């Protein structure tokens, strides 16, 4: 009986260590995003800046479309995904001098902000909403890739120069 108890304690220790490592990994990633870049601002600072600057461009229809597009994301991560996508959309719309956020801006921002591993779910959601994404097929190469980290600005600059 004592052996069983010791094994359970050892198992519990490994489970707790594993959970702490997983949590630490995600906290470290958030810490890295908060680290200032060469210009003194972090990725999250710029994301918040563009969202705030473009807030008047967002109308109810665009907000509801964004909310609908992030429904496949688990609820725990949905707010983070929404902010990330909204930051990309806002940057693109501001770069183009738009008067309001359109479906075109939403599609561009949504595609480049969605990690490549999630494209299958993204395309499924777009098909459910009867949104034709074939005109944006070339933008899938600019999507977030875990192996090649791009800044929000590098991606949106490429998209803006491509559409000009």
From TrEMBL:
Q: Pfam families, per this entry?
A: DUF2621
Membrane-spanning segments = 6-28
**Which keywords are on file for this protein?**
Membrane, Transmembrane, Transmembrane helix
Look up keyword Transmembrane and say if it applies: yes
Name it.
Answer: DUF2621 family protein
| Organism name | Salinicoccus siamensis
């Amino acid at each position: 009986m004592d052996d069983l108890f010791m094994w359970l304690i050892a198992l519990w220790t490994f489970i707790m260590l594993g959970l702490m490592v997983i949590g630490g990994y995600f906290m470290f990633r958030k810490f890295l995003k908060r680290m200032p870049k060469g210009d003194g601002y972090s990725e999250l600072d710029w994301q918040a800046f563009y969202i705030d600057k473009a807030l008047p461009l967002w109308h109810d229809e665009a907000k509801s479309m964004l909310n609908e597009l992030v429904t496949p994301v688990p609820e725990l991560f949905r707010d983070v995904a929404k902010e990330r996508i909204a930051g990309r959309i806002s940057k693109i719309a501001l770069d183009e001098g738009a008067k309001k956020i359109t479906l075109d801006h939403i599609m561009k921002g949504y595609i480049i902000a969605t990690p490549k591993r999630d494209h299958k779910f993204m395309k499924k959601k777009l098909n459910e909403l009867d949104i034709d994404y074939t005109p944006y097929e070339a933008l899938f190469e600019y999507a977030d890739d875990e192996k090649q980290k791009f800044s929000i600005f590098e991606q949106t600059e490429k998209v803006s120069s491509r559409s000009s």
